[in-house]
Amino acid sequence: MTRQRHPLVLVMAAILLEMFVIFAAPPALAEYADVVLNRVAEAAGMRPVIFPHWFHRIRFRCKVCHAELGFKMRAGANQIKMTDIIDGRFCGACHDGETAWSVENCDLCHSGKAGLPPGIFGGHETLGPGRW
Amino acid sequence: MNRCTAIMFVRLPCVPFTRFAKCLLVLMLVVARPSPADERIWAPIAKDGLRDPNGPAVKVLQQPADALTPLSPDTAGNQVRWVRALKEGQINPRASLRQPLVSEKYDKDVLLNLNGGMPVVRFPHSIHNEWLDCSNCHDHLFKKQRGASKISMFLILQGEQCGVCHGAVAFPLTECARCHSVKRTDAMAELEREEAAKALPSAAPLSPPAPTNERAPSPKKEGKGK
């Protein structure tokens, strides 16, 4: 039965298969080390906040945020309120219209899809600590 | 380019013109790729699974590929070898916002995992202190004394100790050889030389550190843990 199949069918099948391997789009995945902050944002009617590490570490060393500004190194461990940010703490230490654009740009921080759980994400090879 | 080899290895019995078809496909592949040296692909912001694709931000935010393509390549994490990008001046991240943190300089390497079956781990203080402050690790993660903290691969894979950063923000734990980088015999020789230097502090010339061999011992236990 298998022997008698038309060669053209096989060729087409092989080409389709190879096309799939070659041109398959990269999977839709968060950039490594993106953090979702969503303890209170969505409950208060805003989109979840996405913090991109890759973007900030080009401009600042870890110690600026994790020692000088006091961000704890645990996703979800920092209780950040919008009033803190407006008062110049946490993200607001930089997003004040001088070091970086100001808090008025709500949508640039509050950019996440509805329903995202807080935590660290990452596409390339690992999904964050303890998750494989 | 290993996809091309894979294509050429696909065997289709009793079908005419397959070699021709395969050659054509390989040709298409070579032409379609911008440059064979750089196969790094980053998901665009609108398709990263986190951003709301209908929100206003996706049109404004920077695409990872735009910022990261010029930096030293890597195969894991952000696909950027951050250590090289910093050393070669491709990036110049600020070390402080207002007043610089005052902390002593400390550049000593620490050799860890002296008794295990995997190659010895060289922990470089110099590289870490470029990015971090002592207080990011001392003393809540590690004591300031070699061997005083019980470090274990199991805890690291759980996101503790080295795994607080490695596997989250710094290069991921799949890169075994980047930590397990020193042959046991070389490490022992280095420690002996250090001891000898301590014994006669005046005479000892600075001995070179044991060579690190990043590519060499291919890890057999990939994917250990869960």
SSE topology:
The complex is a heterodimer of chains A (132) and B (226).
Chain A: H1 7-23, E1 34-37, E2 49-52, H2 53-57, H3 62-68, H4 82-86, H5 106-109, E3 119-120
Antiparallel strand pairs in A: 1-2, 1-3
Chain B: H1 2-9, H2 18-32, H3 64-68, H4 82-87, E1 109-112, E2 120-124, H5 125-131, H6 153-157, H7 176-179, E3 180-182, H8 184-199
Describe it:
The complex is a heterodimer of chains A (132) and B (226). Chain A has 5 helices and 3 strands, in the order H-E-E-H-H-H-H-E. Chain A is of the alpha+beta class. Chain A has one domain: Cytochrome C3, CATH 3.90.10. The longest helix of chain A is centred in the N-terminal third of the chain and has 17 residues. Chain A starts with 6 loop residues before the first helix and ends in a 12-residue tail after the last strand. In chain A, 34% of the residues are buried. By secondary structure, chain B is mainly α. Chain B has 8 helices and 3 strands, in the order H-H-H-H-E-E-H-H-H-E-H. Chain B is extended, with a radius of gyration of 23 Å. The two termini of chain B are 31 Å apart. The N terminus and C terminus of chain B are likely disordered. The interface between A and B is large, with 60 and 72 residues.
